[in-house]
Every structure is written in C-alpha cells, then in structure tokens.
C-alpha cells in the first residue's frame, strides 16, 4: 500500500513539475509523445539534435524520470487528467 501512496505522490509532484518546464521542453515532450525520434523533433522545431537531447535531459531531471518512455507515459497521464 505504501508503494501505491508513493507512486501517487510522485505523480502529483510531476504534475507540479510540468508547470516548471520551458515552452521548448514542452514542445520536445510533445514530440516524444508522438513517437518522434530526436532527429525529427529537432527538424520540426528548427533546432540541433544535440539541443533536443539537452532539453530531454533537463525535462527528465525536472520530472524525475529516467527515459523517454517514462516521459511519454507521464505526459499522457497528465493529458488524461486534464481532460
């Protein structure tokens, strides 16, 4: 039961952290949710692929996530809650 409570608390923390993301980090996260590769996200946003990687690293730190799959799941969860 405690693990469930920690998971819920972690999700609440992420919802707050979404508000701390920059506009570009949100755009990168949107690309990840759409299943795009870093190279395609970079092309769509008109930035370097290395810049996309830097934004991914920063947003994963802010959201306390470890990989792009977790980013996509967290973003989708936030969208589902908002709806």
TrEMBL record:
Q: Does the keyword Magnesium apply?
A: no
Per UniProt, the keywords (alphabetical) are: DNA-binding, Transcription, Transcription regulation
Q: List each copy of the HTH luxR-type domain by range.
A: 14-79
Originating organism: Sphingomonas sanxanigenens DSM 19645 = NX02
Note the InterPro entries from the entry: Sig_transdc_resp-reg_C-effctor (IPR016032), Tscrpt_reg_LuxR_C (IPR000792), WalR-like (IPR039420), WH-like_DNA-bd_sf (IPR036388)
* Domain of life of the source: Bacteria
- What's an example of a GO molecular-function annotation for this chain? DNA binding
User: What is the name of the protein in this document?
Assistant: HTH luxR-type domain-containing protein
């Amino acid at each position: 039961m405690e693990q469930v409570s920690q998971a819920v608390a972690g999700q609440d923390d992420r919802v707050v952290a979404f508000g701390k993301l920059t506009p570009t980090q949100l755009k990168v996260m949107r690309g990840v949710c759409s299943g795009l590769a870093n190279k395609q996200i970079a092309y769509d946003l008109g930035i370097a692929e290395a810049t996309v990687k830097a934004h991914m690293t920063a947003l994963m730190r802010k959201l306390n996530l470890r990989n792009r799959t977790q980013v996509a799941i967290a973003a989708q969860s936030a969208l589902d809650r908002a709806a």
